[in-house]
């Protein structure tokens, strides 16, 4: 038993010191005055690890995932967790994968300013309802949170950046798609702004019982959070707001360069209806995975998945720095032997 404990301790210590670093939580108290608060009314939060050297004026932001709440009961559950209250969040998180501060684990972004935005609104940062439910105390203010945190990062130096990248995983990946053009508008024209969405390309398809479950679910989220006014107007001018929560409808008119990362066998994924774009890239592998950029094993390493001999980190790096407009879809499962 002692031997097993020591082995686990050494393994954990090695993981912490070589593949990730602990980064403190920053509570944005000033956001409260703007009404930019989590579901429970607490201030929003983020983690920032400062850049250095050649990356000092570059920024990469990763938005946390964690599903959505479509009704009051679900939002009340989130309210009492880290997905609805900054008071419930960890004081520190590990930065690994695309947030790692070591070049051998994160070749392009290791010395950039790296930010992890915590997700505490349950609506992919799209909601904005002024009224507070007196019975539940729930606040639906995701759009205000997003803007308040971005304004804080601009004041921290992002306004002087050369590159500013918005990314996210799952519900955070959807946030990236829905906010991509708005993020660019916040920054000076001199900044090279790009977005990449990891496992955030949710599609409008029937479930196995032939029911439009996800369509109704997203419609309920949009209605509850008051999201309609914050969804891309190029979509809401043509379709019902709930349908504009789907990337296949919302992403077609995005002007900012966008990169899509997904597994073809992620249960949420199918890349369709996006249309052509000279600045868009994609990395669609056939591994069974949901979210690959924040995990060291799938982001960059000797045993990481590869598509046309490129890891996700290498493909994203080539696209961000305009070395290669990577656009590849994997061969059907099980032909890809790199998935591990």
UniProtKB/TrEMBL annotation:
BP GO terms, sorted: cell wall organization
What does UniProt give as GO cellular component? plant-type cell wall
Q: Which UniProt keywords apply?
A: Cell wall, Cell wall biogenesis/degradation, Hydrolase, Secreted, Signal
Q: Which residues form a coiled coil?
A: none
The record's GO molecular-function terms, alphabetically, read: pectin acetylesterase activity
The principal localisation class reads: secreted
* Annotated compartments: Secreted, Cell wall
The record, for Pfam families, names: PAE
What EC number(s) has UniProt assigned to this enzyme? 3.1.1.-
For this UniProt entry, which residues form the secretion signal? 1-18
InterPro entries, alphabetized: PAE/NOTUM
Family stated for the protein in its record? Belongs to the pectinacetylesterase family.
What's this protein's function?
Hydrolyzes acetyl esters in homogalacturonan regions of pectin. In type I primary cell wall, galacturonic acid residues of pectin can be acetylated at the O-2 and O-3 positions. Decreasing the degree of acetylation of pectin gels in vitro alters their physical properties.
Would you tell me the protein name for this molecule? Pectin acetylesterase
What species is this protein from? Solanum bulbocastanum
């Amino acid at each position: 038993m002692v031997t097993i404990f020591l082995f686990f301790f050494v393994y954990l210590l090695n993981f912490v010191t070589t593949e990730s670093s602990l980064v403190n939580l920053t509570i944005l108290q000033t956001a409260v005055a703007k009404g930019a608060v989590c579901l429970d009314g607490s201030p929003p939060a983020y983690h920032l690890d400062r850049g250095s050297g050649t990356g000092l004026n570059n920024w990469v932001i990763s938005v946390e995932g964690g599903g959505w709440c479509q009704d009051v009961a679900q939002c009340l559950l989130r309210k009492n967790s880290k997905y609805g209250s900054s008071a419930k969040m960890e004081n520190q998180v590990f930065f690994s994968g695309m947030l790692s501060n070591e070049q051998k684990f994160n070749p392009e972004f290791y010395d950039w300013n790296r930010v992890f935005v915590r997700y505490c609104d349950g609506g992919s940062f799209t909601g904005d309802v002024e009224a507070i439910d007196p019975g539940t105390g729930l606040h639906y203010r995701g759009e205000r949170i997003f803007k308040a945190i971005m304004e804080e990062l601009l004041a921290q130096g992002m306004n002087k950046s050369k590159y500013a990248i918005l990314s996210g995983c799952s519900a955070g990946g959807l946030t990236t798609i829905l906010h991509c053009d708005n993020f660019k508008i916040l920054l000076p024209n001199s900044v090279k702004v790009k977005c990449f969405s990891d496992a955030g390309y949710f599609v409008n398809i029937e479930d196995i019982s032939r029911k439009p479950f996800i369509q109704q679910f997203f419609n309920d989220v949009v209605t509850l959070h008051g999201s309609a006014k914050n969804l891309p107007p190029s979509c809401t001018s043509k379709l019902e707001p709930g349908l504009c929560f789907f990337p296949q409808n919302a992403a077609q008119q995005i002007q900012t360069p966008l990169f899509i990362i997904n597994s073809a066998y992620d249960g949420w994924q199918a890349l369709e209806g996006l249309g052509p774009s000279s600045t868009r890239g994609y990395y669609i592998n056939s591994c069974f995975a949901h979210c690959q950029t924040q995990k060291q094993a799938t982001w960059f390493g000797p045993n990481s998945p590869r598509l046309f001999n490129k890891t996700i980190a290498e493909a994203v790096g080539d696209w961000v720095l305009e070395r290669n407009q990577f656009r590849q879809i994997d061969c059907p499962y099980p032909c890809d032997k790199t998935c591990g």
